[in-house]
Amino acid sequence: MTAATAARRAASVAVGVVLVVLLAAGCGGGSGKPSGEARSTSAARHPATRAPSGQATSGTFNSSDIGWIQLMIAMDDQAVRLLDLVPGHSSEAGVEKWAKPVATACRGELVRLRKLLVRAGVPDTNPHEGHDMPGMVTEDELRTIERAKGTAFDALLLAAMREHLDQAAKIAHSERSAGADPATRKLAASVERTSHTWRARLPRAA
């Protein structure tokens, strides 16, 4: 078993305990690069507290809410990039038929997640950039999959998306238990439900 595989399995176990532990222990290195965007003025309207991770939270949000939002944004951003490769790379009509609505769903999640981030008064930065985490399609993986065509591409795509959907469901379930903001927990319930749905409909590789 490779070091990367071992790290992914360790992080998966952490998810089952509490989302905050996953965010602290599941990252494989690297650091987020601030986007330069100004902090939302909503922070000035709500009293802020300091989360254990060092991330300021405000209003009804706790550290689990912020951690889950940021992680899901990072995961969905990479998933969309992967799914956008399907036209022109896949050889299976069934894979293309499956991938298109999943990409649309991920984009919809990203809109809702970023709205929550604005309301929380947290900058839209990526603290997971460069990390190798369960469910996260890494840059190296993207480059490898991008070079593939036909059945080889389909197999790599479906394996990556299977892991993404499984992990998305797990951390959404954790957020429902550990989160505090009602709207964030509601979105987590939706993500958990749709992740199970798309996972059940996942095509088989040829």
From TrEMBL:
Gene3D superfamilies: 1.20.1260.10
Coiled-coil blocks: none
Highest taxon above the source species: Bacteria
Biased composition (Basic residues): 196-206
Ranges for region Disordered: 29-59, 172-206
Stretches assigned to the DUF305 domain: 65-194
UniProt-listed InterPro entries: DUF305_CopM-like, Ferritin-like
Descriptive protein name: DUF305 domain-containing protein
